[in-house]
Amino acid sequence: MITGNLKLYEAPMESQRESQLREKLSGEVNVSTWKGLIPDMLTRSLFIVSPEIDLVEVGVQVALDHTSRVREWIDTGRLARPTKEQIDEWETTGSLFRFIIVAPFVFFQEYEAVSC
């Protein structure tokens, strides 16, 4: 009987923790040029996030160690290390990127500025 009650209290705590983490990470999203991300690429800690996935959500799932969710993104190519072709393009285009750090990893997406 006691274990049943504990499960009822554990779920809301996890949800609150996830919510707090999402809020924290949302405030830590930054913008960089490719040149600013090169040091992280060299240490192999840099991962590109598909535009169909929310950048902060990736950070939350990694920080909470939800490996099955992260593995699904990797297996489907929605979370990957940048390819040589992508790197070559970014070095010539001057693209901007949104990024978030969840140590020891850096997750980034191409930045699409909202035009006025």
Task: Note down, in words, how this protein is organized.
The protein has 116 residues and is of the alpha+beta class. The chain has one domain (2-110). The protein has helices at residues 2-26, 34-42, 55-63, 67-75, 84-93; strands at 30-33, 46-49, 79-80, 96-102, 105-110. Strands 1-4-5-2-3 form a five-stranded mixed β-sheet, with helices on both faces. α1 (2-26) crosses α3. 17% of the residues are buried.
- Regions with pLDDT < 50 over 5+ consecutive residues? 1-11
Query: What is the number of independent domains?
Result: 1
What order do the strands of the largest sheet run in, or round the barrel if closed?
1-4-5-2-3
Distance between the termini: 58 Å
Task: Tell me the structural class.
Answer: alpha+beta
The whole-number mean of residue pLDDT values reads: 87
Proportion of β residues? 15-25%
In short:
With about 120 residues, the chain is an alpha+beta fold.
